[in-house]
Structures are given as structure tokens and as C-alpha cells.
Specification:
About 40% of the residues lie in helices and about 15% in strands. It has about 450 residues and is of the alpha/beta class. The protein has two domains: about 180 residues, Aspartate Aminotransferase, domain 1, CATH 3.90.1150.10; about 250 residues, Type I PLP-dependent aspartate aminotransferase-like (Major domain) (Aspartate Aminotransferase, domain 2), CATH 3.40.640.10. The radius of gyration is 23 Å and the shape is globular.
């Protein structure tokens, strides 16, 4: 976004038609203001893992503090006169951002894990109460988020549902690779007279990170008669376009604290009006039970609701950027692709997917000589990079199946990938620091076997 902040020409007009500094400064946020917004980040750390916990600018932290103080100053007034109005305002912002038909389709919840529990709970009840037959199928991607898999186990498997995991290829070369695997899983789910009651589709898988062709997969679900479609877009809002009319799912969730600058933790759950809204309930039962999911979710007992109330402030923040969230998304995507290519060139490795299959995160192959041979090795290497090099980045172990030939470098098969993120606070130096850390390890003959267990 440097082009926004070019020096003004002597004739009083810049090449992007901004007037001179003497007359008026650019209305858009400056580089120095961005640095100030994130000056609370730990200095000296290459923080290239925005995907895990997100990032919250100082102005949003200040807005959250004001909401928190309103509650502490006069909790009764806050509860009776402010909380409901504030949550409705946040829901309205979400409704407009995601192009939903009605604000009643939007509930605010803590995170995508809570949203998954809400949806999967009603699926479990349908099996337990006989609306679904034992053995009817639920289809999900094998790389679904771990907590969501646990919810499938807790609500669906124990109630009699038959769970089918779509084994997605990685590294992946095209959307068609995913579509073919998904179609086969649906056919398997419909075999022997069974029905597919739910398809759970990630919009952006967490690890390894891949942008999934959700519109195409939802369309296939409709063609194949799948009862309900739930899209887990935990990483999506603020990272890719999220449009309920285009996606067409029954349920959709995304976290606002990952890529939309809110403090942890806040997410939305979209439930299409034609879906069975009356059967959806928050897993924490409060005195609002039975008043509709949005109202149930807006009060689950005395707690800090401030993170859910600052969504309008987060929208104001992104609108300080020329082009708003659309331009931020593009800038982050372009930058993470550029940095990913820089790293693979430095290490002689490959990306985990084509650039058009990544969002603001991309998988970068690590040198095979590091000897990443297990999930434990990946975690130990991640810890070593944090503690010895001040680099914060997740590491993925990619197991090779029998007879499978993965991506290779000069030392053998690549079994380790780093998931790098790019957010507006990142600089090129962050990625150079990571590059140099790996180069130092390779030069010194390091392997993961040298690391003690965590």
C-alpha cells in the first residue's frame, strides 16, 4: 500500500491526485499510523502467524476498554439499556458485510468452535430423535479443524451418524483435485440407501492451509441431495470475499478476531432463513432459551461481551484504508504470495498450492535436510524457531503414504511446510528473518533429531 503514501510533487498534485500536504493530508491511514496501531506487539519477533490468533490494533483495544468500563461502572444499565442494542448493531454490520438477507440470520458467538457446536448439536439431536436414520452420513474434509472434528465425534458419531472424511491431496495443484475427491465421498455416503444429512466444508483449511472451492462444492451438494451444508470459514472474513448469496450454504461461520482486527474472541454464525432455525440452540442454556438463536447467543450469563460489541469499530478501522477490506485482502494475498516465492527460491523448495488457492496464508516447503518426520518434530521445530530465532510460524508435517511421491528438493522428499501469514503490520524483514533462520540451521547441519522433546 506504499503507493498511497508517496511524496507529493512540487506542483501540488501527486500522481494519485491527492492534494499537497500544505493543503490537506491524505485521508487514508499512513504507514506510521499502522506502526502505532500495532506498537504493542512484542518487539523483535517476526510474527508471521496472524492466522492463529489474529491481531488487534490499539484503537480497537481502546474501544473494547470503553465497552468493558461501561459494564463495570453500571452493570444494570449496561445489561438493560446497552448490551442488546450493541449486539444488534454488530449483527447488522455482519449482515451487510456478508450479504445476508436478514439480520435474523446472523448470531454473534464466541468463535467458530462454538458455531460448530450449535450446528452439530442439532444434527446429533436429529439422529437421537429418529428424524435421521442410524448410519446416515455426514461428510467432512479430513483436514477439518481439530476442535470441529471433536464436535463431530461428540454430537454426531455417538448419536449414530456415519462420518466420511474426504482425503484431500497435499500438495495440491488444482481445484479439480478437491472436487473429484469430494464427489467420490458423497457417492460413498449415498451408498446402500443411506442419505447424506450434512456436508461440512472448510472455506480455508487451517493446516495445511488451502483455499477450498466452496461455491462449487455447495453446488454439488445441492445436486446430490445433501440435506444441510455447513461451511466453516474460520479464517475467511477479512481474508477472502464472504457472500452468503454466492456461497449458498445453510450455515456459515467465521471468526472476526483472525483477519478482521477484532479482539479475541468473536465470530458470527449465519443460518439461512429456510433452514431449521427453531432447532438451533446455543450449547450454554440461559434464561433466553427458546427466544431464537440470536437472542440466546447474545446472553449466556454474566461475562465480558466487549469483544462482540466492537465489530462496528473494526469496520471503521478497515475503512481508514483506501479500498477498505477489499484492498487489505488483495494486499495481504499479493504480499504472502511474493514472500512465499522468495522463501521457496531461497530454500530450493516449492509452495503447497498454486497462488490462486491461497488467501492471506500460504504453505511453504521447508528443506528436506531438516528431517521433519513427525508431528512432534514439527512442533519442536516451531518451538526452536520461537525460542532461538524469535520467529513465530506454524509448521506442518506432511506424511508420505506408501508409494506416494511428494514434492522434493535436492536432499529428498519435502515433509515439512511452514504456514506463513501476511497482515498489514508485517514487513519484508519478518520473512527475511525466517529465511535466514532456516538457512543458518541448514548450514549448521541441523536436524530435528537434535531437539529435545517439548
Amino acid at each position: 500500500m506504499d503507493s498511497q503514501y508517496e511524496e507529493i510533487k512540487e506542483n501540488g498534485v501527486s500522481n494519485n491526485n491527492h492534494v499537497t500536504k500544505k493543503l490537506k493530508l491524505s485521508p487514508w491511514i499512513s504507514d506510521s499510523e499502522i506502526r502505532d496501531e500495532f506498537s504493542h506487539h512484542e518487539p523483535g519477533v517476526a510474527r508471521i502467524n496472524n492466522g492463529s490468533f489474529g491481531s488487534c490494533p490499539a484503537s480497537i483495544i481502546a474501544a473494547q476498554k470503553q465497552w468493558h468500563l461501561r459494564f463495570l461502572r453500571q452493570p444494570d444499565d449496561f445489561y438493560f439499556n446497552q448490551l442488546g442494542k450493541g449486539i444488534l448493531e454488530s449483527r447488522t454490520v455482519v449482515k451487510n458485510l456478508i450479504n445476508a438477507d436478514d439480520v435474523e440470520e446472523v448470531s454473534i458467538v464466541d468463535n467458530a468452535t462454538t458455531a460448530a457446536a450449535i450446528v452439530l448439536q442439532q444434527i446429533g439431536w436429529s439422529f437421537a430423535e429418529g428424524r435421521f436414520q442410524k448410519g446416515d452420513a455426514v461428510v467432512m474434509l479430513h483436514c477439518a479443524y481439530g476442535a470441529v472434528k471433536k464436535s463431530i465425534q461428540a454430537y454426531v458419531s455417538r448419536s449414530g451418524g456415519y462420518v466420511i472424511e474426504v482425503q484431500l491431496p497435499f500438495p495440491v495443484s488444482s481445484n479439480e483435485d478437491i472436487i473429484i475427491k469430494f464427489r467420490k465421498a458423497l457417492l460413498k455416503g449415498k451408498s446402500n440407501g443411506r442419505k447424506v444429512r450434512l456436508a461440512l466444508i472448510d472455506h480455508i483449511t487451517s493446516m495445511p492451509s488451502v483455499l477450498i472451492p466452496v461455491r462449487e462444492l455447495v453446488k454439488i451438494c445441492r445436486e446430490e441431495g445433501v440435506d444441510q451444508v455447513f461451511v466453516d470459514g474460520a479464517h475467511a472474513i477479512g481474508s477472502v470475499q464472504v457472500d452468503m448469496q454466492e456461497i449458498g450454504a445453510d450455515f456459515y461461520t467465521s471468526n472476526f478476531h483472525k483477519w478482521f482486527f477484532c479482539p479475541p474472541s468473536v465470530a458470527f454464525l449465519y443460518c439461512r432463513k429456510s433452514s431449521i432455525l427453531s432447532d438451533l440452540h446455543h450449547p450454554v442454556v440461559s434464561h433466553e432459551y427458546g427466544n431464537g438463536l440470536a437472542i440466546e447467543s447474545a446472553w449466556i450469563g454474566t461475562r465480558d461481551y466487549s469483544s462482540q460489541l466492537v465489530i462496528p469499530s473494526a469496520l471503521d478501522f478497515v475503512n481508514r484504508f483506501e479500498g477498505g477490506i477489499q484492498e487489505i485482502r488483495k494486499m495481504n494475498h499479493d504480499a504472502v504470495v511474493k514472500m512465499g516465492k522468495m522463501l521457496t527460491k531461497a530454500w530450493g523448495t516449492t509452495l503447497g498450492s498454486p497462488p490462486d488457492m491461497c488467501s492471506s496464508m500460504i504453505m511453504v516447503g521447508l528443506p528436506a535436510s531438516l528431517g521433519i518426520s513427525s508431528e512432534s518434530d514439527a512442533l519442536k521445530l516451531r518451538t526452536h524457531l520461537r525460542e532461538s530465532f524469535c520467529v513465530e510460524v506454524p509448521i506442518h508435517y506432511q506424511e508420505l503414504k506408501d508409494g506416494e511421491i511428494g514434492s522434493r528438493d535436492e536432499d529428498g522428499c519435502i515433509t515439512g511446510y511452514a504456514r506463513i501469514s501476511h497482515q498489514i503490520y508485517n514487513t519484508v524483514d519478518d520473512y527475511h528473518k525466517f529465511r535466514d533462520a532456516i538457512n543458518d540451521l541448514v548450514r549448521d547441519g541441523f536436524t530435528c533429531k537434535m531437539l529435545l522433546p517439548n
